[in-house]
Design goal:
alpha+beta
């Protein structure tokens, strides 16, 4: 597996706009994986992957146990 950087970002529910602005500024050829953690209430469904996919050049998903870093 080729080396790549990992960037970890976190925010509370009010930080979605800041996350969108950060993701919007990324280049599509960036050689890094981004881990984003967002605090929200346990009964809410997260739509963060869909939100970030619309504004940025990288695919976003909710990870599953055992998923490879891509």
């Amino acid at each position: 597996m080729p080396e790549r950087d990992i960037v970890v970002m976190g925010a509370s529910a009010g930080g979605v706009e800041a996350l969108k602005e950060t993701i919007r500024g990324l280049r599509p050829d960036i050689r890094a994986s981004f881990f984003v953690v967002l605090h929200f209430l346990p009964f809410q469904k997260s739509h963060l992957p869909e939100i970030l996919s619309r504004v940025g050049p990288l695919p976003t998903v909710h990870p599953n146990n055992g998923d490879l870093i891509q």
